[in-house]
């Protein structure tokens, strides 16, 4: 990887030119990915016609679809899941990501995929032992073995240490080092029951660095990181009580230099990049009127060369068909489009949204609060410019607070309102985004009381 010689970074550049319009920025050749131009990651042959874009796993030679199917937010009906899996496979999607932490996802995924030849797909699942008080080797081994049973397979293509870094180095050591679990998983890879070993990262960058720096010892095939055009350089800024230790740019570049391919989670930042504020959506639609807003985020991620696959938690056929269209084949972002998205990222930084990705790791709440639902409504109100509210003496204050309250009561069942939060803090340790959830619930209560 070649480093940029120009010390003036993108933020300083934008500061120097002032607040131009998005259209003006889009006409420049400002490229947030310029440092990646000389990457020599081997790629699969480019597809012809409407074929899915593929990437090559450097360790195994697997040809992996650049669009991966995240099996977290599936329909409740098994027949609907089967139809979506059938469509995905028929259109070149061959990477399916699940985990014991995703409810019955492993079981549902196993049933759907068992109907197809085993060599037509790759299954990724995880060691989800992060929310246990005692990180017993025997209990973790049982979880590992149950994944085989639930998925109805005798080997796992991609296995991850799940949600590394969320609670720091001490918990990581307790989960995987002190109990000998990581050594066990390495041996399972040697025995062929795991084909590729990696980890998914949230939170404390010390843990991420520790693992990547030991690549010669552990030989990670891949690492799963949160990456999108906002997190690229704005992840560590902190919003709504939330802070990350490293921008996605740092994570991606470190993996690239270590020769480890990245699997991307949250390319839409929990759906926020499929529903950007109107002022940005209009600009994106003006550039590509026939494309969805979500496709911009997927194309941006797919343009990065060291990405093995990009996960999308598709919950209905409309999501699936639109995403398949975006990646079949991928139309990489131009220099102008990258510059435009960089400006959108800078603009969205100023919106006081709560950085919830709707992963639902915080659920269920002991008191019935719909945590993701509350945050989704709050963020929608920000994007619709109901929030932040003007001063109470302003002429439109009553109208806007009235619209906020009316919409809130319509969007959420009363039993799931923020005022049911008892500040028990059970959710805090579970949140990979490190959101101060009770604090945010208090803000919502103040708005609707």
Summarize the structure.
The protein is of the alpha/beta class. It has helices spanning 10-17, 22-26, 78-90, 105-114, 137-151, 168-177, 181-190, 205-212, 215-218, 231-234, 248-258, 278-287, 293-303, 317-326, 335-348, 371-383, 397-411, 437-448; strands at residues 54-56, 63-65, 67-70, 95-97, 122-127, 156-164, 194-201, 222-226, 261-265, 307-312.
Q: Can you walk me through this structure?
A:
This protein is of the alpha/beta class and 449 residues long. Helices cover 41% and strands 12% of the residues. The strands form 2 sheets. Strands 3-4-5-6-7-8-9-10 form an 8-stranded parallel barrel, surrounded by 6 helices. Strands 1-2 form a two-stranded antiparallel ribbon. Helix 5 links the parallel strand 5 and strand 6 (156-164). The N and C termini lie far apart (54 Å). 44% of the residues are buried.
């Amino acid at each position: 990887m070649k480093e940029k010689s120009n010390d003036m970074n993108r933020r300083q550049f934008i500061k120097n030119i002032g607040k131009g319009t998005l259209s003006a920025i889009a006409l420049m050749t400002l490229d947030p990915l310029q440092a990646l131009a000389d990457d020599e990651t081997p790629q699969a042959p480019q597809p012809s016609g409407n074929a899915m874009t593929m990437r090559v796993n450097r360790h195994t030679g697997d040809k992996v679809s650049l669009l991966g199917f995240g099996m977290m937010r599936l329909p409740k009906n098994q027949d609907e899941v089967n139809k979506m899996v059938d469509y995905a496979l028929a259109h070149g999607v061959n990477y399916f990501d699940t985990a014991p932490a995703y409810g019955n996802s492993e079981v549902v995924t196993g049933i759907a995929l068992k109907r197809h030849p085993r060599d037509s797909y790759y299954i990724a699942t995880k060691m989800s032992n992060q929310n246990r008080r005692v990180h017993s080797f025997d209990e973790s081994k049982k979880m590992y073995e149950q994944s085989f049973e639930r998925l109805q397979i005798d080997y796992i293509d991609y296995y991850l240490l799940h949600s590394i870094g969320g609670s720091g180095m001490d918990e990581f050591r307790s989960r995987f080092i002190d109990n000998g679990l990581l050594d066990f998983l390495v041996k399972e890879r040697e025995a062929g029951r795991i084909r590729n070993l990696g980890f998914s990262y949230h939170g404390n960058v010390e843990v991420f660095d520790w693992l990547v720096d030991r690549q010669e010892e552990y030989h990670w095939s891949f690492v799963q990181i949160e990456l999108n055009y906002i997190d690229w350089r704005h992840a560590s800024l902190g919003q709504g009580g939330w802070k990350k230790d490293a921008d996605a740019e740092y994570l991606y570049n470190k993996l690239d230099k270590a020769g480890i391919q990245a699997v991307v989670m949250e390319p839409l930042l929990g759906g926020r990049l499929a529903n950007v504020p109107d002022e940005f959506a209009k600009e994106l639609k003006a550039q590509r009127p026939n494309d969805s807003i979500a496709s911009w985020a997927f194309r941006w991620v797919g343009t990065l060369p060291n990405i093995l696959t990009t996960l999308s938690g598709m919950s209905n056929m409309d999501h699936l068909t639109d995403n398949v269209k975006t990646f079949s084949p991928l139309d990489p972002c131009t220099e102008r489009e990258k510059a435009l998205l960089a400006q959108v990222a800078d603009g969205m930084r100023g919106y006081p949204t709560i950085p919830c990705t709707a992963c639902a790791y915080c659920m269920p709440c002991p008191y019935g609060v719909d945590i993701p639902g509350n945050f989704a409504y709050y963020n929608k109100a920000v994007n619709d410019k109901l929030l932040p509210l003007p001063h109470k003496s302003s002429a439109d204050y009553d109208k806007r607070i009235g619209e906020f309250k009316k919409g809130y009561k319509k969007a959420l069942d009363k039993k799931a309102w923020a005022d049911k939060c008892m500040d028990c803090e059970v959710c805090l340790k579970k949140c990979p985004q490190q959101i101060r959830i009770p604090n945010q619930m208090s803000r919502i209560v103040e708005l609707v009381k």
